[in-house]
Amino acid sequence: MADEEIEVDLDDLQRRMDGAMAALRQEFASLRTGRASASMLEPVMVNAYGSPTPINQVGTVNVPEPRMVTVNVWDKSLVGAVEKAIRESGLGINPQTNGTIIMLPIPELNEERRRELTKVAAQYAEHARVAIRNVRRDGMDQLKKAKAGGMSEDEHKIWSDEVQELTDAAISKVDTALETKQQEIMQV
């Protein structure tokens, strides 16, 4: 049997684990830490023209002040939908409308809200860990098939150790990112 058939594609597993980490970073960017950021609105989807649309595709998102985000909605008929999407997003922001401009004043975070946000960050991290473990399971399934196809016991052990090392490294990155984000959130 050729070596290509036996080997597990570690580069593919690494790429998929890195993808889970990139998704986690994007989710962390959407968590507000008391200062305004245009990225906090990235996960907000607006029901526009009959389908969910990212907010940055229906208007311009700006940060004119450290505690203010504005959304300049291009289509006046969508102002209500954008406002509703922001209200229901769970960001804890009360939008104020002025024509086609929606202003989002970012309130100072209180201790209770900071604790809630650290829990949300922990949930995001757990989703990333689950995604990484799913990639690991796929790699182990590939190894089982290869073993059934004639891979030696020693080779199977070496490859499964490699997959486990990738998994451990990726989960360690998730834990580090979570710790950093929680410290950032709790910082007054």
TrEMBL record:
Top-rank taxon: Bacteria
GO molecular function annotations of the record: ribosomal large subunit binding
Protein name: Ribosome-recycling factor
Entry's Gene Ontology BP terms: cytoplasmic translational termination
Main location: cytoplasm
Keywords from the UniProt entry: Cytoplasm, Protein biosynthesis
Transmembrane regions listed in the UniProt entry: none
Pfam families according to UniProt: RRF (PF01765)
Family recorded in the similarity comment: Belongs to the RRF family.
Domain Ribosome recycling factor as annotated: residue spans: 24-186
GO cellular component: cytosol
Subcellular location: Cytoplasm
Purpose: Responsible for the release of ribosomes from messenger RNA at the termination of protein biosynthesis. May increase the efficiency of translation by recycling ribosomes from one round of translation to another.
Gene behind the chain: frr
